[in-house]
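COURSE: Structural Biology Practicum
ASSIGNMENT: Worksheet 4, Part C
STUDENT ID: 0417
INSTRUCTIONS: Below are two proteins. For each, the amino acid sequence is given first, followed by its structure token string. Answer the questions at the end about the second protein only.

PROTEIN I
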Amino acid sequence: MPPSQDPLYAGLGQAVRIGTDLVAALIVGGGLGWVCDTYLFDSTPWGMVGGLVLGVVAGIRNAYRSAQRWPKT
């Protein structure tokens, strides 16, 4: 499907993508932190806290990179 020519739908698509990137980064970071807590280090809850912090950082970085690719009008 070709990209939409309507700016409303193009902007909405970008916003949904950024939101999905943020949520996915949080899920992956939290999941990796939980795995570290449960199976590797027995450091409850610090592995999950660290994973969530890294997930937030990665999500914000991805959102920033996506925003830099937006066309400047």
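PROTEIN II
(use this one for the questions)
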Amino acid sequence: MTKTNSFVFTFVQIMAWVIFVGLCIEAGALIFNFALGLINPNVMKNLYQGLDLSELYQRSKIAYFLTCSFMLCVPLLKVVLFYEVIKLVTKIDLARPFSKFVSDQIFQISYYTFSIGVVSFIARQSVKRLMLYDIDASSLNHFWEESQDLS
């Protein structure tokens, strides 16, 4: 392996770890806010990234739990996805890149990527349904950007 290839591959490994840590922080913050909101409903006015779900909670607790479940599911799937990417980039043998391990990891990565898209699409459609009941949920759209091309 040349020096340039080694540098590029090390850079890819570092970026995968940085993205993984960032996604873990985001997922942890969402889980913490969701739990804190259940303990103290007054906190729902200023959740993660200034999100206000107090109106949704007061109007329909089921819709609130469904929305929060989607908000948690997408980042957790992203965390698992990047964990699989990290496993791939740390264990790949560049001398023999076409192995059973690489094939299995690529399959897992594509599975999680597809799952993120499907869950994001279902979440986006569910939030659109909330708008039919005069619940403003447009601030949630950035949580399911992955399905934006499908709508």
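ANSWER KEY EXCERPT:
Q1: The chain is about 70% helix and 0% strand.
Q2: The chain has one domain: 3-150.
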